[in-house]
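Weekly structure sync, notes
Attendees: PL (lead), two postdocs, one rotation student
Agenda item 3: pending single-chain targets
PL asked that the sequence for the first pending target be pasted directly into the notes so everyone works from the same version. It is reproduced below exactly as submitted, 225 residues in total.
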Amino acid sequence: MANLEQLAECVIRGHINANAPYPPDLKGKPGVEELVKQALADGTPAQKILNDGLIAGMAEVGKRFRENEYFVPDVLISAKAMKAGTEILKPALAASGAKALGIVLIGTVEGDMHDIGKNLVSMMLEGAGFQVVDLGVNVSPDKFKEALSQNAGASVVGLSALLTTTMVNMKKTIDALREARKTIKVIVGGAPVTDKFAKEIGADGYAPDASRAVDVVKSLSGLAV
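Predicted structure, written out during the meeting:
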């Protein structure tokens, strides 16, 4: 197996390093951290390691999640492994001038403290190559607006809500964002949110789960899905 294929497999299985106890059958074998370091030492370009190793692995994780072969805990474990690899790669990527696919702002709307879905979307977007600015939970329209002004390169904003009582704040946030920048694209999601509701409040996109959120963000960013 080629080194980058092995790296992708370690991301898929959530194997961070040789000392990691999970998964048990890979304990003692090179994980994401060792394989990224080895690939760099071999002279493999950082962008290739990112694309063909880390992002390729997370793409497969997303596919398995969509097909109900993987569940939230599996995705979180894989995302943690992917993040360990990107931390090692960051200096080399910066030195090579590599750029993210785009910048996405994300947060749970005002009044809502739930973050599991938002965190999962953030991880999947990072795994796909986006730079994510996570604003956290209970984010007011003004805070979203301020973050947009501070991140001029952001092209998409993601809004999350888990409560029917906080869904109304999505419309208020979209209105505030459009005041700041008319062309900004907004994607919404969360358990009670539907495609019909998304259209009613003027959102540009809706995703029922984290994996499909990546495809929607790519489409809104003008990238091939």
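Discussion points:
- The mean pLDDT is 94.
- The chain has two domains: 3-96, 103-220.
Action: rotation student to compare against the earlier draft before next sync.
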